[in-house]
Design goal:
heterodimer; A: mainly beta; five-stranded mixed sheet; 5 strands; globular; B: alpha/beta; five-stranded parallel sheet; three-stranded parallel sheet; 37% helix
């Protein structure tokens, strides 16, 4: 089992998953998002290959209204 | 008359830049943006709400990046590191878009900018290929330093963010405009249309605002008022105002031809 932090909240997975699988699982497939893993951007083109590891810290962001 | 605002080599017809926050809903956001005539709109970058319905409407649907120039901001960042991370995420989110608004705040109560962190972030971002429009205090020395670092626009506050207090120190804005060659835009503090007009009459290249529109009783009507104020102020600046004097011995009507004279 691996445990990762997503936007500050802990989440467990029974086995290693890719970023693409995570995005799909969260219902964010096809949405305009950006993702940072342990402080580094993961480009959309690498979502399929990038596997999550135990202890990873992810930030997933969107554009919202702001001034 | 062709009087474009050129930022980082791109020309814009509107000198009014607006934020997309604090509106009732996306329909009101869009209606206000349309009434304002703004081409550049600021957006914030935030964590996805993990619990939310993925099919909820998004800002990108109401305000498509194909129709507006997005200006992702770093609102809420209190360190250079957070600001840089936020804008790198924004660049990824917006397919390599590099025009950004940098703001690093120093105080949660006043939202006054932290210029030390702002300068550090500006250096990193410019070196990383960003085109940085930078929110800062109205300090002319800092403004010049930010230009020297390579920022594409300097955006001093007129008064504090969200205060609506108007232009508190027009003399500092003038000092900045005299020293800086890139566009100078007033960012923050505008409360009503006359504030925007005064900023433009002073010679500012543009005005950026959010709360003055979104916080009005009728935001869409205020957005139209701001459009006119920015245009009127700009034209008054270009026209060159008459000099001020305490009184004039030169009336506007002819002194000759008065009736009842011998």
């Amino acid at each position: 089992m691996i445990s990762v932090s997503i936007n500050g909240a802990a989440r467990d997975f029974p086995q290693a998953v890719s970023v693409a699988e995570l995005i799909h699982d969260m219902g964010l497939g096809g949405k305009r998002i950006a993702l940072e893993r342990n402080g580094e951007i993961v480009p959309r083109s690498r979502f399929e290959q990038q596997m999550l590891a135990d202890g990873d810290k992810l930030e997933i962001v969107v554009a919202v209204g702001g001034g | 008359m062709s009087d474009k605002l050129t930022i980082a080599g791109k020309a814009y017809s509107s000198r009014l830049l607006v934020g997309t926050g604090k509106y009732k809903d996306f329909a009101e956001t869009r209606a206000a943006l349309d009434a304002s005539g703004a081409e550049i709109v600021t957006v914030a970058i935030r964590r996805t709400n993990l619990g939310q319905n993925a099919n909820e409407p998004s800002l990108l649907d109401a305000v498509p990046p194909s129709q507006f120039t997005y200006l992702p901001n770093t609102a809420g960042c209190y360190s250079a590191d957070d600001a840089v991370r936020t804008l790198r995420l924004a660049r990824e989110l917006l397919d390599g878009h590099t025009l950004v608004k940098l703001e690093v705040l120093g105080d949660q109560q006043s939202l006054y900018p932290n210029v030390v962190e702002t300068i550090a972030a500006a250096k990193t971002l410019v070196a990383d290929g960003f085109q940085v429009m930078v929110y800062t205090s109205d300090d002319p020395i800092i403004a010049k330093q930010l230009e020297d670092i390579g920022c594409v626009a300097i955006m001093p506050l007129a008064s504090l963010i969200g205060s609506g207090m108007g232009i508190l120190n027009p003399w500092n804005l003038q000092l900045i405009m005299e020293r800086v060659n890139v566009p100078v835009l007033v960012d923050a503090g505008v409360g009503t249309a006359s504030d925007a007009a005064i900023a433009m009459e002073l010679g500012c290249d543009g005005v950026l605002m959010n709360t003055a529109i979104a916080g009005a009783q009728n935001p869409v009507l205020m957005a139209g008022a701001m459009k006119k104020a920015v245009e009127a102020g700009r034209e008054a600046f270009l026209a060159g105002r008459m000099p001020k004097k305490l009184y004039s011995a030169s009336p506007s009507s002819p002194t000759a031809g008065m009736i009842g004279k011998a």
